[in-house]
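BUG-506 | component: ligand-complex export | severity: low

The export step for adenosine monophosphate jobs runs without errors, but we want the raw record kept on the ticket for reference. Input record follows.
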Amino acid sequence: MSLAHLLVRHALQSPQQPAIFDGTQMHASYGQWAARSEGLAQRLRDAGLAPGDRVVLFMRNHPRYLEVMWGAWWAGLVVVPVNAKLHTREVEWIIDNAQARWAFVSSDVAPEPLAGLERQIDIDSPEADALLAPAAGETPPAERAPDDTAWLFYTSGTTGRPKGVMITHRNLMTMGLTYFIDVDAVSPDEAIVYGAPMSHGAGLYAVPYLMAGARHVVPSSGGVDPAELFALGRALGPLSAFAAPTIVKRLVDHAEETGLGAEECALSFKTIVYGGAPMYVADIQRALRIMGPRFVQIYGQGETPMVATALSRRHLADIGHPRHLARLASVGVAQTPVQVRIADEHGRALPLGEIGEVLVKGDTVMAGYWRNEAATASAIRDGWLFTGDVGCLDEDGFLTLKDRSKDLIISGGSNIYPREVEEVLLNCRGVSEAAVVGAPDPEWGEVVVAFVVPEAGSPLTVDMLDRHCLEHIARFKRPKRYVLVQQLPKNNYGKVLKTELRSMLH
Ligand code: AMP
């Protein structure tokens, strides 16, 4: 069983069913999608690419993204979707590391030939048209074992060279099925919109939406333009989307600025799944207030894609619960196919309430890092994935993340979790965004430094921030320095780049 069979199944069952949209225009029905992916598979095979070979996708979101991915899987290949914002040298490093043979690129992302490839295909060229044209003969999907790699996902490499995470067919099948249990039910007349990059979490959600035989919408802008997304939703029926918290914020800002109420938002969006970075309590409360009950949170990582915990719509709506605020600050409970545990540095389970490293075990956990046994052995021990995230579990099974272990600040021997300070700062009037890092200090080891983005037009001052912190947080956690900035550095997936913030302090 390979992921290609999901497409075969729907193409047989409902070939006329609309599948892929380019903006509001239908780009492919399920029958057309399957015919194009099958055609590509046949040509990949004819060109000598064998099951297990790697094909890179280095392009912005594009309706053909899905046709190429499923074509590669049809031929039994491994896809390597690469962040479209990477530098040429970084993508060439990945091509070399993955020993990739072909790459599909968009010319705006890769205008020049990339080193190390046998063939580079511009996704908008006649060459791509020919590769994706339906072929004459039949090509059954290549047989794949559940533990064969389907997706080689390169980590963002913030702490060194990126590593290739081997995500298997079983991992993605499990992730897809889990969506329906822990995130949202999906019927064939629904649609997902790919605003966030398809090389990451958003693209992974093609799996459950294909399982459901639903529609896949790629915005014409290829990215996140809130006005466009709201309009697409009104035109095509309420959409669902995966969005990092910074994207959620932009959608909520748009709704507020244009005076859209929850009912109007419901015409554009059915479900917004958020995750990938911390969602602060003040921000999710505002999102729920303005856009209504259409949010679900997930926590996962490349090494266990989209699946570790989830905070359901029901939990988010349960405002009468005595621990509601704590739940809003949490990432919810373990998703169905995994166990989650908190452990000390030796991997021993800690009692409830204690803070330690988050471990995950189950069928969504990666097979390992590509050609990196040492890194695999340290990340997966006794079947448990050591996530590098720090958190604690409460008595109801809700996980609260503190931070990545490397972002923890140790000042005067005390642990300070940046997230806690960030939550407090965000409650100060006039603060739009905040990120807290540790700066080296001869006396304290590290001191807390807060980077704060003021809301447009706000007269926010350092004094106001400091007074707010004095009132709301222990003195030792209070930032010793506040830096007001126009924006926070973020990667293409909406994660604040704390390494960049730290380097700004030197
Ligand atoms: P990536 O492997 O690039 O998907 O990044 C995964 C990391 O993002 C996790 O290990 C967490 O540190 C962070 N992350 C993912 N989901 C959440 C969430 N819901 N809340 C807070 N942090 C998250």
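Assignee comment: Attached the raw record above. DSSP finds 18 helices and 26 strands in the chain.
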